[in-house]
Amino acid sequence: MFYDAIENSHGLKYDPFKALVAPRPIGWISSLSPDGVANLAPYSFFNAVANRPNFVIFSSTGRKDSVSNIEETGEFVCNLATWDLREAVNTTSAQVDAGVDEFDLAGLEKAPSRIVKPPRVAASPVALECTYYQTVELPPSGDMQNLVCFGQVVGIHIDDDVIVDGMVDVTRFKPIARLGYNDYAVVEELFTMVRPG
What we know:
Blueprint: H1 17-20, E1 24-25, E2 27-32, E3 38-43, E4 46-50, E5 55-61, H2 65-73, E6 75-80, H3 86-91, H4 102-105, E7 110-111, E8 120-121, E9 126-141, E10 144-158, E11 163-164, E12 167-168, H5 170-173, E13 176-178, E14 184-186
């Protein structure tokens, strides 16, 4: 099949776009409001986009608390969403008032960051401390903004238990990824290919 993506004339029960661009890593973004209230929310439009220096992005449909907090304070943390933390990740996706601390909502312990002020998820095996770089506003969907937030990674936490022979073993922490609809995937196995020289 082919369909016009602008008109979104696919004729299917649900829009297939997110199911086609999959799996997508989940950026579990923690930030602080200017008043010091912690915020934690998962974003499935998330990825690493550069290294040396390291940069990550996440995209928000609408100006959510994460973006506002980050723009105002200049800092955030990307916590790794894992199989063991999947229920807490889902809980923190709820739309709640700006004054609600999602760490408390999901029963998650906070851990201090080293360089930035927002806390990280203590139970997450990986956390990327970031300083805010910029927000790019993409064309809107009706009256809904599409905002892409860039951050430079300035500190990285890795649980020693997931390092094997000097390399991170993803099968030890089982990151989860977003698919389309209400579907997710978990990384439990991998294969290796050597790129041609």
